[in-house]
Automatic annotation (TrEMBL):
Annotated GO biological process: lipid metabolic process
Amino-acid positions noted as binding heme in the UniProt annotation, renumbered to this chain: 123
UniProt source species: Helianthus annuus
Named cofactor requirement(s): heme
Descriptive protein name: Unspecific monooxygenase
Keyword field contains Cytoplasm: no
Pfam families in UniProt: p450 (PF00067)
EC number: 1.14.14.1
Family indicated by similarity: Belongs to the cytochrome P450 family.
Entry superkingdom: Eukaryota
Amino acid sequence: MILKELSMLTTSSPDIRPLNLTFDDLKSLNYLHAALSESMRLFPPVPISSRSTVDDDILPDGTYVRKGWFVDYSVYAMGRMESLWGCDCREFKPERWLNDNGVYQQAYDPFGYLVFNGGLRLCMGKDLAYFQMKLVAVAVMHEFEIEVVGGGGTPERMVDPPYSLSLLLNMKNGLPVRVKKRQVAPVMLQELRMEI
Ligand code: HEM
């Protein structure tokens, strides 16, 4: 699906010329945006977070916390909760982020998706991060064919390489892939006159 979406940008650019992209082109990649959100739901780059209380308090569910206590929450576990995502919560399904017209929509409950935290402490680089991820994904997919080595699963089944838990979520042994260079010119970002 991502390649199909990408091909809509490439039809006007023969392979020998650079693929000229604008910010609006990147914005229009709804399926890629959804696939990134879905990847981070299952594999959040910041998998666990912690807060300490400045005073005695009572959490919305009635849990009592004393001054100086730590309250941790697992973004990784939240991304796999049936109560938040439904019975297909363990499936990789970018469509859950798209409305009937295929346009990206935010998660129903923004506090159920804390990949970039939420509320007043929402990550200030969120939009920039999506922009960078989309740009890199487009550039790589345009120029290379990538095949996961060792059977990474089918589109219906979630690819689940082993991860090691730390402050950031790292793949334990990396993800071996076979890379084949395609005979195409590189991607250019028009506004920045930048070759990716
Ligand atoms: C996929 C990429 C990224 C992820 C998953 C991410 C995630 C997060 C998370 C979870 C927090 C909350 C930390 C906390 O309060 O415990 C945060 C805060 C923040 N992030 Fe990001 N981030 C990403 C990229 C970026 C980028 C590219 C920038 C800047 C260029 C950025 C700038 C910030 C800043 C300034 C805060 C502090 C916001 C505040 O506390 O008011 N982040 N990010």
